[in-house]
Specification:
Number of strands: 11
Largest sheet: 11 strands, mixed
Structural class: alpha+beta
Order of helices and strands: HHEHHEEHEHEEHEEEEEHHH
Distance between the termini: 64 Å
Radius of gyration: 30 Å
Strand content: 15-25%
Shape: elongated
Oligomer: single chain
Number of helices: 10
Length: about 350
């Protein structure tokens, strides 16, 4: 009798557990079916929602293929960005952190661009469903074509084409197949002191004590060896105005690209730069091509250049680049996320360690 009782007791427990499991399975299936019907009803009721959903699925599929190690080929892409002050041209903000600063320091150019802040397009887009890869077709590393320091504002170009970076930043590179014309960069600088230039150029050297700016036009500037040594004479230097009796606003054009060259050149003649703004690179300004201008970008805004603008403005033919492994550079993924607080960054650092 005891054996039979134990047998029926064990059989009852097994039947109870099996029934409980079947109820849980059917409940899960029912919930999934309800969610599917609700999702389909949500997207079929609005064609725009359905379009966003389809695009999102395609993007998820493309990024999944990218992360699986598939190689893809890109074309030359150039971004025009109006750099505001206090933004650094660096993939990391580590160089902006001093001993007296906190970890939450100045933002970088790449943070602004990867997060799509200030993106300008002629097309109507859904920014919530849009992102950097879909807007630019860039999944490789982005390079700045000539850095601007934190305080300098104005035109900054960025590209995925490393050879184009060399073409613009190398003073020996040529534009439009002209053997004597390198790519030039024009700046407006507010400098200290009331300066003038000789009324007309002559074959005799100017009096550099009276006209120190003439030194830059005729001889160039003598910098320290660690800063590049002797510079070439500037391509153009024009006095625009005298905002006050002790300041001068000038336009200066150079074809070199030494680190902080403009500031050091004026310092070498006993002046100093109070404000610096890059106006143009080649034939490109913040309004695009001078012959076919568009609306000027505001500070913090950026847009994609057309292949025609790249050709006519920089003398560069857009091309297919070598195949790259997308998303291989972890630094871009970190910069692309939204700017985080000091606490969040510290927590992430502990997790990475």
């Amino acid at each position: 009798m005891m054996a039979m009782a134990c047998f029926f007791w064990a059989t009852g427990i097994f039947a109870f557990q099996n029934a409980h499991l079947m109820i849980e399975i059917h409940s899960t299936k029912a919930t999934s079916a309800l969610q599917t019907r609700a999702s389909e009803s949500y997207y079929t009721s609005n064609p725009q929602r359905r379009e966003v959903r389809r695009d999102s699925k395609q993007y998820i599929k493309s990024t999944s293929n990218a992360s699986s190690g598939k190689m893809r080929q890109e074309r030359t892409v150039v971004i025009m960005y109006h750099k505001p002050p206090n933004v650094i041209t660096s993939h990391s903000n580590a160089d902006a952190v001093s001993q007296t600063q906190t970890e939450q320091s100045r933002r970088t150019v790449y943070e602004d661009i990867y997060t799509m802040q200030g993106f300008v397009s002629d097309q109507v887009i859904d920014k919530e469903a849009f992102n950097f890869e879909r807007a630019t077709s860039i999944q490789s590393k982005l390079h700045a074509i000539g850095r601007l320091d934190a305080d300098t504002t104005g035109l900054l170009l960025l590209t995925n084409d490393g050879d184009l970076v060399h073409q613009i930043t190398n003073p020996n590179a040529k534009q439009d197949n002209d053997q004597t014309k390198p790519v030039r960069k024009t700046y407006q600088a507010l400098i200290m002191g009331h300066h003038e230039l000789p009324e007309s150029s002559t074959t005799t050297p100017s009096n550099y004590e009276v006209y120190p700016l003439a030194t830059l036009l005729e001889k160039g500037a003598t910098l320290s060896p660690k800063h590049g040594g002797q510079t070439k004479p500037v391509d153009d230097l024009t006095i625009l105005s005298h905002p006050t009796s002790t300041t001068t606003l000038v336009s200066i054009t150079i074809s070199e690209g030494k680190n902080r060259q403009i500031r050091r050149m004026f310092h070498s003649i006993g002046s100093g730069v109070m404000k610096l703004h890059r106006v143009s690179i080649g034939k490109l300004t913040l309004m695009g091509l001078s012959k076919n201008p568009t609306q000027e970008l505001e500070e913090g805004e950026w847009r994609l250049l057309t292949e025609n603008e790249i050709k006519l403005g920089l003398g560069w033919d857009c091309r297919l680049l070598d195949k790259v492994s997308p998303l291989a550079d972890g630094r871009r993924s970190r910069a692309r996320g939204k700017r985080q607080s000091k606490t969040t960054r510290s927590a992430e650092g502990r997790r990475r360690r």
